[in-house]
Amino acid sequence: MVVSKGWNVKEAPGGDRMNAENPRSRGSHFSTLVLAAASIVGIVVCALLAEPFLGAITWAMALAILFVPLHARVETKLKHPNLAALASVLTIVLLVVVPTAFLVERLVEEAASGAASIRTRVADGELQRLLEAHPGIAPIGKWINQQIDLPSILASLATWLSNAGATFVRGSVLQVAEVLLTFYMLFYFLRDRSAVARLLHDWMPLVSADTERLFQRVFDTVHATVYGTLAVAAVQGSLGGLMFWMLGLPTPLLWGVVMSLLSVVPVLGAFIVWIPAAILLLLDGDWGKALILAAWGGIVVGGIDNVLRPMFVGTQLRLHTIPAFISMIGGLALFGAPGFILGPLAVTVTMLLVELWAARDKLNNRKQQE
Q1: For the chain, what percent of residues have pLDDT higher than 90?
Q2: Cα Rg of the chain, angstroms
Q3: Could you tell me where the DSSP H helices lie in the chain?
Q4: Of the candidates 364, 341, 358, the residue with the CA atom closest to the CA atom of residue 60
Q5: Residue 10, helix vs strand vs coil
Q6: Confidence (pLDDT) at 223
Q7: Secondary structure element (H or E) that encloses residue 7, with its range
Q8: CB count, 10 Å around CB of 305?
């Protein structure tokens, strides 16, 4: 009997050879299929188990990536891993959670008071008198008044914002639980980041160089999303809100935050707020304020993106406007708030995987030609 790899070769009577498949080979293929099926089922079950914690996992991962340099410095001062991770988490809480909670509370209160103020002005006919003072646009105001019950809409908005403010101040159980889970996971992401990196390296079905490219793309995407998008948008909103405050316009904090949110979305921007505000100032006869606001919005607020984005991001992430828009808006629609990070991550990682497959395909074609 001669045994070769994968086949059992027998000497048959008369010198004929008869090849038969090795039963062990059939068992090996079956075991591989069972293992693959069990792995897929296990991955799906794990994904379903993790789904309720998706927000906490996403924010913990993002914060860990952003604050690793800070934690590395803390580790040089505090040699004990647990103590260093705890100190870093407490520092991040002071830097992120406390200012955010204060800003949200003040924002909702200002939004409610601003909506109530606008409702009162509309109910008193102030907006209508302003439009009638300019015959060229008076028909527009008349049409709006006929088609939309603006006082009722603003009254409902003011009530909703007031209730939302009370909810934010109290905080729901789920919101508090997600915040606590985020920082609980952040503690271990910081403390055990080396072990996590090694584990992911072992699990990735890629060569070491491709795994490093994948990790680098994830880091770059998180940095670009937070620094290149959120930070720039925050600066634009702050500058716009500052000018609203200096010109004595109502609810500058509210409109500053609105400008920040609009600056985040590709193809939109802070101009959606400051251009109508400048027009209203013109209609009200405040030519000086209107010109100042228009110049500030067009030159400073609009141009700050071209100055800060290269400084914060460099060439880390350069998505075309269309995939950037789809990744952000689609991510928010699919995952909620965590989608702001998960959406761009999904797009950029998928693009990298397609690049890796294309590179392998070219390499295989080159080898076949040789």
Answers
A1: 6
A2: 30
A3: 23-50, 54-77, 81-92, 98-123, 126-132, 138-147, 150-170, 173-191, 193-203, 208-223, 232-246, 252-264, 271-283, 287-295, 302-312, 321-335, 339-369
A4: 341
A5: strand
A6: 82
A7: strand 7-11
A8: 17
